[in-house]
Amino acid sequence: MTAATQNVNFKWRVVDIAVASVIGVASSLVYWLVATLTYTPWSVLDAAVPGLPGIINGLWLFAGPLASIIVRKPGAGLYAEVVAAVLEALLGNIWGISTLYIALVQGLFAELGFAVFAYRKWNLQTTLLSGVLSALGCWGYSFFTNLQAISFTGSYGVVYLITTLLSGLVFAGVIVWYLYIAIAKTGALDKFASGREVRN
Amino acid sequence: MPNTTAPNPNHTNAPSRDTAADNATLTFDNWGYRHASRKHFAVRGLSLTIEAGQRVLLLGASGIGKSTILEGAAGLLGGDSQTVTADDGTTSQLDADGGVTEGRVLIDGTPVQQAHGRVGLVLQDPDAQAIFQRLGDNVAFGPENLNVPRDETWQRVARSLDAVGMTGVQLHRSVMHLSGGQMQRLALAGALAMRPGVLLLDEPTANLDPNGVEQIVDAVRGVLDRYHSTMVLVEHRAGPWIDMIDRVVVLGLETDDMQRARVAQTGDEDEVDRSGFRRTVVVADGTPDDVFRNPDLDFAELGIWVPAKYRRPGDEITRIHTADEPAYSARTGNGQVVLTTDDLAIGRAGKPIAEHIDLAFSSGQITALVGMNGAGKSTLSLTLAGLLEPVSGRVRASAELAAGADGDDPFAWKSTELASRISYVFQNPEHQFARGSVLEEVMLGPLRTGCDEEEAERRARELLTRFNLIQYAKANPYTLSGGEKRRLTVAASLAAAPRVLILDEPTFGQDRRTWMQIVTLIHSLRGDGVSIIVVTHDRELVTALGARLVELVPADTAGEWKTRGAAGANGVPAGTPQVVPVSAVNERTEAPKPSSRSKVIASMNPAFRLIGAMLASLPLLLSLDWVSASVALGLEAVILMAVGFTPWRIVKSTWPVWIGAPGSALAVLLYGKSGGATWWQWGMIHVTDRSAELALATAVRILAIGIPTIITVLGIDATDLADAFSQKLRLPDRFVYGGLAGMRLFSVLQDDWSALTASRRSRGLGDDNKFKAFFPQAFALLVLSIRRSTTLATAMEARGFGGDGPRSHARVSETHARDWVFLAVCLAIPVVALVCAGLAGTFAFLGGN
């Protein structure tokens, strides 16, 4: 790597915008496929087995950290989440425009993982942090909306917190990192510093 | 020199720009480009001038850098760059894409980056160039990016569509329903609307059927006659174009070790050997007559299909023959039938497009499934492959083929049973890749169908050697070139030793060299006794293979192959096709879709609908109590019924919240905040008076929040929403329209997902449990989506998108007084509900303690 490419360039190219938005779009397709497979049983299990729903929460969180680690511009994770949410709302899936609220929360929290290092550190650790923070946002959102009537410091709240964070760590952190490496190896990311880092 | 003071007529804008020449001169000045992560420059030291008004055909071997040259000429390379000085003092430009530029590209003497809109580029893939859902918006996009005023934009749209022969087409029509030829003409119209002085065409017909090729060639001819634009065409099959070409340029490489320029690839190599590469040179330049009659140029090695009038003996495609070829003919096979259809009806989603099909396929036979675009060739071939369920009737495997499997119906077979019997090679190789290396990719089939590791590797290495891919055994399949990817998919399919091999458009978009490799490969499989079915438009392919023809003929046409006969260029007929009648391919008109089931809601500005949904729902989160929730839900029901929704329609549109609400309520009932009498306690579960009341409030509130947020937003057109975001909310256009363009890919990616599912079944991966199979398939989808989005970015930049300058808006996002009334009504719902709760004394801030 030459010194020049390590300079941080925060200006978005068209390809940055296109890739971040399409990661959002592809993710919403994946979310939708997961939802159609799991939605009904999940809603019931949510109640019956405290903590279990938290375990798969991470599946809904990967768009933000993935877009961030690939595009590497401030706001990429938030942008991908918002594109996915608007698309889902227009398609009439699940929660209508409420998906936009949760997308904003999750996207912002995912951004935090990279923002605290001034968008200069792009490694497994920051990706894990991003995934976990995104999960924290997801958990907080649930208790602020649907689960206001449950004490978030009570045992259900704590179990739900732990499972959600674990799920975020795995699905939105570890898996996202190795997913990114695997995508980079296909050469699809050669126009990105993130892709060249893996391929060179 | 009497003329020195007169302006060059080619360089001035004539008063009437619509008809007079407005063409530009394109100059490469010692230009070069090295792509990110590449060792060698794709193009280097190129000096070439194309005079205004010239129509140039650019030729050169695969990998010589023709597409790079066009991208450079369109100003798509080297943006946002910084100067780097090498050890020897030469300077180059390192750009944000990681590429390196040397020298300059000039349009009428101006660096191309500053010559906005002077160059129009049409790419190979028609699907990749449609940026928006509605046809007219795609043509208006370029002028918008050039800040052309609204009225003029729509005039340009009409004129450009007229110029490509799409006069009077409905502007709101969805691009999803256009044929390849129409899509490509639309892309041409989109480029034309920018009024380019230079028109660049990068293999514009490679992905089209014969009818589509005719459409685009005619359209370009019309455009050149009208605008006299400078044109640069890159195309392997130059035949249909040749009478409008006045200059042919052949490129080669100059190397250190050789005096002579290296022109072609060697052997089976897909790319030109670049060792010692010094610069890109012009090896031949002149009129078509000069160049194509030049005996020193070997056009077959260059991958060029020589136009008919210049063909020499040996350029002609004739019936080919391969070693170990069996004695029986490819048209009949050895007579042992392996697959038959009995009164088969095919179609998707239960609707038949063709019925009463009775066909038989034999070992060693090659069948070509032909017919116009949209006739249903893929539907039939996927049904034959056991990947699509017959609508009625059946596909039957012979006793020999079915031996060991469960029954004789391929669709009912397990994925692993299918993989070792019938294999399907998809048109897009990336739909098929399932492993991280070329070797593993080929080992997959044998491993899934019961081979041990050692045998699988032996078989894989043998196939890779035969297909000349062994040197890439460890490479990632996605990183191979186009022709290599295609050979790999065939190798991987064969590895499971199927008795029937179905190939979908195996020669699409290939140059003559790669074409020859693939055709030879397919033909050589006859020796293995495989029954081969190719879905194709390619007449030369049918001739070369000596294949049996089966044509799908739509009810409203005479059929392309039936009427013209499938004669090869040498006049040897390939036989009368067996005809399968299918239902008509309808050219439909579309009514504009209403954006809501309620006329009132549909008339609102989309951004206001979105904000209204938020105003109606968000404040309800302030209090969790049954009074505010019930009042809000009641008001919503009354209002929605007043604007035209029936209660049943409301429930049907919002079904997910009706499942979600009881789910969350149950969680609250069991684990919610407790108080009052205890109903039941067990472990963490504690059901009390209070938790029951909160559960009820939670359920009702989820409905009260969910219903308006779904119903007010449902049906909004994405383009209208983007316009509102841009014009009413003043969000930056780059992000708004970048996001919108990404959204159009949703339906494309849905089709990708279906293809991925089918290809995994075909490769023996379909029996895994859903969860286990989900992740690799999601990975393949993400790779595809990123590839599609980088192409999308290129297409958008080619239309001038992404610059810092001002943009105009061809469509107006309107707001009226009723939009503000709508917001007020939306906000009134939670306000009234919360006031009621306050009066009733039930208000509980964020659910209370």
UniProtKB/TrEMBL annotation, chain A:
InterPro entries: ABC_thiamin-permease_prd. This is Hydroxymethylpyrimidine transport system permease protein. The keyword Transmembrane helix applies. The keyword Cytoplasm does not apply. The chain crosses the membrane at residues 12-34, 54-71, 78-95, 101-119, 126-144, 156-181. It holds the Pfam family ABC_cobalt. Keywords: Membrane, Transmembrane, Transmembrane helix. It comes from Bifidobacterium biavatii DSM 23969.
TrEMBL record, chain B:
Keywords: ATP-binding, Hydrolase, Membrane, Nucleotide-binding, Transmembrane, Transmembrane helix, Transport. Residues 26-278, 339-579 form the ABC transporter domain. Its main location: membrane. GO terms for cellular component: ATP-binding cassette (ABC) transporter complex. One of its GO terms (molecular function) is ATP hydrolysis activity. It comes from the Bacteria. This is Hydroxymethylpyrimidine transport ATP-binding protein. It comes from Bifidobacterium biavatii DSM 23969. The lineage of its organism: Bacteria, Bacillati, Actinomycetota, Actinomycetes, Bifidobacteriales.
